[in-house]
Amino acid sequence: MDYFELECAVENWAEEKGIIDHSNPLKQALKTQEELSELMEAIIDEQGGENRTDEIEDAIGDIMVTMIIQAKMQGMTIEKCLERAYNVISKRTGKMVNGKFEKDS
């Protein structure tokens, strides 16, 4: 499947499971936070020498699923949200500081 087909499949799955109709954006944001915590834990473990590639891939996928559902709940699309963010960051200047990009004020 290509990305668009996957996005549609996630939206359809969320509708079939009742997530769109019976949950809300705050609960979905909490689910995203839970998945992000799993990603952070796997990254920390991997930096400690464990091979957690599968868990990292799974967590990133789960985060994407929760974000697709969040966008749908908000009447938006991930594509539009990503385009909006890119239009901002593409003009951003800054520098790397200790492995993290610090934007100029």
How many structural domains does the protein architecture include? 1
> Number of helical runs?
5
SSE sequence, one letter per element: HHHHHEE
Q: How does the helix and strand content classify structurally?
A: mainly alpha
Per DSSP E runs of 2 or more residues, the count of β-strands stands at 2
Q: Which sheet architecture does the biggest sheet show?
A: 2 strands, antiparallel
CATH architectural arrangement: Orthogonal Bundle
Sheet with most strands: strand arrangement: 1-2
Poorly predicted runs of 5 or more residues: none
Which range best describes the helical content: under 10%, 10-25%, 25-40%, 40-55%, 55-70% or over 70%? over 70%
Could you tell me the CATH topology label. Helix Hairpins
Would you give an account of this structure?
By secondary structure, the protein is mainly alpha-helical. The protein has a single domain, classed as MazG-like (Helix Hairpins, Orthogonal Bundle). It is built from five helices and two strands, in the order αααααββ. It has a two-stranded antiparallel ribbon with strand order 1-2. α1 (3-16) crosses α4 (53-73) and α3 runs antiparallel to α4. It is globular. It starts with a helix and ends with a strand. The model has no long low-confidence stretch (mean pLDDT 96).
Properties at a glance:
single chain, 105 residues, mainly alpha, Helix Hairpins, 2 strands, 70% helix
